[in-house]
Amino acid sequence: MAASPHTLSSRLLTGWGGACIWYLEGRAMRESPRRFLHLLRNVNQQWVTFQHINFLRRMYVTQLNRSLKQQIKPKPEPAESPFLAKTSLDEAKAEICEMRPLVPSSLSLSRKPSEKALIELEPTSVTEGSIALGKETKEEKQWKEMKLRADDLPGILARLSKIKLTALVVSTTSAGFALAPAPFDWSCFLLTFVGTGLASCAANSINQFFEVPFDSNMNRTKNRPLVRGQISPLLAVSFATCCAVPGVALLTWGVNPLTGALGLFNIFLYTCCYTPLKRVSIANTWVGAVVGAIPPVMGWTAATGSLDAGACLLGGILYSWQFPHFNALSWGLREDYSRGGYCMMSVTHPALCRRVALRHCLALLAMCAAAPALDVTTWTFPVIALPINLYISYLGFRFYRDADRKSSRKLFFCSLWHLPLLLLLMLTCKRRAGEEGAGAPQS
Questions:
Q1: Which pLDDT score is estimated for 441?
Q2: CA gap 396, 355 in Å, rounded
Q3: CA distance 261 to 68
Q4: How far apart are CA 299 and CA 169, in angstroms?
Q5: What is the number of other CB atoms lying within 10 angstroms of the CB of residue 83?
């Protein structure tokens, strides 16, 4: 059995010398493992320092490239999503794992500061991007002063007067003038055309003036000029006055007093009856249908100077056509009308809305059949108008049965081409002067 170093030293030396040697040997044996571990720790620290320097170098290159890209782009990059942030973090972790063969296995815990630095760097870039975007949206949402330029004024006034609706009113007036059993007078026609257009612009402008607080709550009307503040209410009222006065004057003294009275009555009916009634009762739909039925009657009276059965027939066709047209349109805007505070048939009485649309689709069939009996058209007209009247009646039935947005949209778009085509067929089959009874069937 081998002797220990302590036993060997005690045999060789005795006394004070032996005790000193024994003490030094024991201290050397106790300090040797501690120094060895300290040496390894220093080596490990050197390797960790190299890993940190290499990682920071890569992060510096990455941040430098990103800053250069941001300088090239005119706008800051959008804020990264959490998924992208997580992806970039995983890529950084993969880079660290590739460097692991350079580091001893005992240094697995030394990567935590690097990952922490990475996590701190990524949210910093995300925060900077979100702050930049927040500043942009804040600047966009700030109130800006609306400046009225002269070149923008015609477009604003056209939207104020609802130029598309005015074009429809003028076209139906022209159809009534052309269908009247009288010689076509171009001067009278032009005065009727201009006067009716001015009266329609005045009525639509006053309507928008009254409905500004309610139009601002609807997506369909929130971009109107008065709602957006593009023009002042005083300018809108002045424009309406400048349209109404010459328009009624042209119809009264340029055409005849009956047409002027109808034009003035229609402005009053639209602005003082229909507009406030929209927030009170569903009867506004019937009142609005009367407003739309008067323009062709005005065209007839402008040509003949009298109200007779033909004028009433044209007014009846326009009156019935508006119910499938407007009821189908309002069906898709029920949420908008309810937000605006309007009392519409599609909102408060949906079943009645569909029934009324179907009834007036069928009424168009009857009134087209009555046109030759009243000497407005020949007997060919109800025959060639039958297909389009049957089609709109079929779509009215689908709307009544299905009660969905798809059927209402089909009925609405059908009404857009049905009316001009029907009026064109009436003009084609118009009974000329001196042809009374020529187109009637022989007995």
A1: 40
A2: 9
A3: 74
A4: 10
A5: 7
Number of H helices, E strands in the chain: 20, 0
The single residue listed with the structure tokens 């971009």 is: 223
Q: Which residues contact 356 (CB under 8 A, 6 or more apart)?
A: 285, 323, 327, 345
Tell me the one-letter amino acid at 222.
K
Closest C-alpha to 162, from 209, 205, 219, 223? 205
CB count in 10 Å sphere of residue 280:
10
pLDDT of residue 296: 96
- Phi first, then psi, for residue 377 (nearest 5°) are -130, 175
pTM equals: 0.66
pLDDT of residue 13 exceeding 50:
no
Residue 80 to residues 87, 125, 238, Cα–Cα distance (Å): 11, 9, 53
Tell me the per-residue pLDDT of 354-407, one tens digit each, with 9 for 90 and over: 999 999 999 999 999 999 999 899 999 999 999 999 999 999 999 999 989 999
Higher pLDDT, 104 or 169: 169
Residue 93: what pLDDT? 54
Rounded-to-integer distance, Cα 399 and Cα 86, Å: 52
Neighbouring residues of 180: CB distance < 8 A, sequence distance ≥ 6: 299, 300, 302, 303, 304, 310, 311
Percent of the chain at pLDDT above 70?
64
What pLDDT, on a 0 to 100 scale, did the predictor assign at position 443? 33
H helix runs in 341-379, sequence order: 345-348, 350-370
pLDDT tens-digit map of 254-274: 999 999 999 999 999 999 999
Q: Give the 3-state secondary structure of the chain.
A: CCCCHHHHHHHHCCHHHHHHHHHHHHHHHHHHHHHHHHHHHHHHHHHHHHHHHHHHHHHHHHHHHHHHHHHHCCCCCCCCCHHHHHHHHHHHHHHHHHCHHHCCHHHHHHHHHHHHHHHHHHHHHHHHHHHHHHHHHHHHHCCCCCCCCCCCHHHHHHHHCCHHHHHHHHHHHHHHHHHCCCCCCHHHHHHHHHHHHHHHHHHHHHHHHHCHHHHCCCCCCCCCHHHHCCCCHHHHHHHHHHHHHHHHHHHHHHHCHHHHHHHHHHHHHHHHHHHHHCCCCCCHHHHHHHHHHHHHHHHHHHHHCCCCHHHHHHHHHHHHHHHHHHHHHHHCCHHHHHHHCCCCHHHHCHHHHHHHHHHHHHHHHHHHHHCCCCCCECCHHHHHCHHHHHHHHHHHHHHHHHCCHHHHHHHHHHHHHHHHHHHHHHHHCECCCCCCCCCCCCC
